[in-house]
Specification:
This protein has one domain: 3-Layer(aba) Sandwich (Rossmann fold). It has eight helices and eleven strands. It has helices at residues 12-20, 37-47, 66-73, 89-102, 119-124, 145-152, 187-210, 237-244; strands at 26-32, 53-60, 77-80, 107-110, 129-133, 156-163, 173-180, 214-217, 220-223, 226-227, 233-235. Strands 3-2-1-4-5-6-7-11 form an eight-stranded mixed beta sheet. It has a three-stranded antiparallel beta sheet with strand order 8-9-10. β8 (214-217) and β9 (220-223) form a beta hairpin. Mean pLDDT is 92; it is low at 1-16. One of its GO terms (biological process) is 'de novo' IMP biosynthetic process.
């Protein structure tokens, strides 16, 4: 249905507003459970017009999550939805779906959201769910990735942005950033090095999605219409260090 706003009619302003609607900012909802450092990276990217959209809500399953303060400080709707108030995982996810859909997001971003999502939730938002994981997937799915990498004596570690599927940390990878593991690294120092790379690549992946460049189709993820490799695009340690102005 097309409208013409030609001629001085009382409705012309309304019609102009109507026709401008498709150019409105793409909408993002971020799910967190804790500190929200990746959330802050996304907020900072938005402040510099580098996100490609607007964070319209931050939702936490923990009322004491510091990330909620980060959201409020940035003028973003901050919602606490404590999971312990629900009798089952399914009941919580059902409530979470309702809160999310109230904000009509184009994309849902998991930023340290420490809940295993039900199939109902994943299917509801399939293709619109991104997560970041502190390893070079498929290595070290699950928890304690830095300690496990150190125990194995690997020389390279990193982080991965991936679409969320029903397989925990098993969805298609979009982009990764590698970091060199040094002999003096412990779990804390390695975590810090990986965090810096998370804050680099997560806003980039979100922007690709909001610009329509990144999509998840039946054959897997594509960027600009081209299939992504199994481990997504990979930033080497040197590539990431250059982007971050680090000493290599």
């Amino acid at each position: 249905m097309s409208h013409s706003a030609e001629g001085p009619t009382p409705a012309s302003d309304t019609l102009n507003d109507f026709t401008a609607a498709p150019s409105e900012a793409r909408r993002v909802v971020v799910l967190i459970s804790g500190n929200g450092s990746n959330l802050q990276a996304l907020i900072d990217a938005q402040a510099y017009d580098e996100l490609g959209g607007e964070i319209v809500a931050v939702i936490s399953n923990r009322a004491d999550a510091y990330g909620l303060k980060r959201a409020r400080d940035a003028g973003i709707d901050a919602v606490a939805l404590p999971h312990r108030e629900y009798d089952s995982r399914e009941a919580f996810d059902g409530a979470l779906i309702k809160v999310i859909e109230r904000h009509e997001p184009d994309l849902i971003v998991l930023a340290g959201f420490m809940r295993i999502l039900t199939p109902l939730f994943v299917q509801r938002f399939y293709g619109r769910l991104l997560n970041i994981h502190p390893s070079l997937l498929p290595a070290y799915q699950g928890l304690d990735t830095h300690a496990r990498a150190l125990a194995d004596g690997v020389t390279e570690h990193g982080c991965s942005v991936h679409f969320v599927t029903e397989e925990l940390d098993g969805g298609p990878v979009v982009v990764q950033a590698a970091v060199t593991v040094d002999a003096e690294d412990d779990a804390a120092s390695l975590k810090n090095k990986v965090h810096v790379r998370e804050h680099l690549i997560y806003p980039i992946a979100v922007k690709w999605f909001l610009q329509g460049r990144l999509q998840l189709g039946s054959q897997g993820p594509t960027l600009d219409g081209m299939p992504l490799p199994p481990q997504g695009l990979r930033l080497s340690h040197a590539d990431a260090a250059e982007e971050l102005d680090e000493d290599q």
